[in-house]
Amino acid sequence: MANFLTDYAVPFAWILGGIIAVVICLMIGMAYLTLFERKVLAAAQLRLGPNVVGPFGLLQPMADGLKLLSKETVIPSGANRVVFVLAPMMTFILALVAWAVIPFNAHLVLANINVGVLFLFAISSLGVYGIIMAGWASNSKYAFLGSLRAAAQMVSYEVSMGFVLVTVLLCAGSLNLSQIVEAQSHGWFGVSWLPGWYVLPLLPMAVVFFVSGLAETNRSPFDLVEGESELVGGYFVEYSSMTFALFYLGEYMNMILVSAMTSILFLGGWLPPINVAFLSYDWMGPIWFFLKTVFVLFCFLWVRATFPRFRYDQLMRLGWKIFLPLSLIYLIVVAGVLVGMGWLPKVG
Length: 348
What we know:
Number of strands: 0
Subunit structure: NDH-1 is composed of 14 different subunits. Subunits NuoA, H, J, K, L, M, N constitute the membrane sector of the complex.
Largest sheet: none
GO molecular function: NADH dehydrogenase activity; oxidoreductase activity, acting on NAD(P)H, quinone or similar compound as acceptor; quinone binding
Transmembrane segments: 12-35, 82-102, 108-134, 155-177, 197-215, 252-271, 283-303, 323-344
Oligomer: single chain
Keywords: Cell membrane, Membrane, NAD, Quinone, Translocase, Transmembrane, Transmembrane helix, Ubiquinone
Membrane topology: Multi-pass membrane protein
């Protein structure tokens, strides 16, 4: 019995507590990301934004959530009812599962697996199935066209993202996300206090990754999947109430995930901005990670407030004719430099 408690019950309770803590933090973060987005858009358009519900509008996300919960779920008469309901659940669950391998600190990660990058790449690839299921099950031409656009968009940009990940892998010598962060702890140019983040040598790849992340999450200026002017909302045009809210939650959690990934791959994850002792305490790691993720999220919102929506042919041209050759050439250059200069990371 004692062995059962120490070998199974306590580790299970510890993991379950960690999962609940991550999910609660994500839900709160997602709720206030919607408020943050509306405030940033309002500032860009010289408006006040939400400021009525609670002090400074801080209770607006709660009011929005209650409104969606209290509405009736409407399922179209010609829809496949099972697939129609499963699609938003699949999108939401996949957006949550991906967070299992995200390290918040050197010792603060739910599953510190050696193939974390591959795991995230696989989960992000599965996300398109929820959208295709929603488009097909809605029995609506607008929803179906939106889902087809989403599938084409995701395939186009995942190839470039794959090359970006391989480039980071070559520099770090590991697919483990924690080890990728630790590989950035050494300062550049022999200066120990300078951050050794990969954003400096891999700046073009960081830009490709960020823009591809916008396309992967169907955010502006690549929100052709929703395309209100043409598709009336796209794949979730028939959704309402909690089924709509699950898609909404999934989209915003994917935004946070891409921002966290950008922080880990290029901005040093939980590492401080300057390698000095008083900024490098263990408890400060999650704070640096949070601030870097918020910075990337702000860039998401700034792009939405600034750039007009791309045409579909422009979206495809950017993905296949610019990002794909650029990422492939840069990968070859980085590999050549690492081999030629003898800078390949030592593994094992």
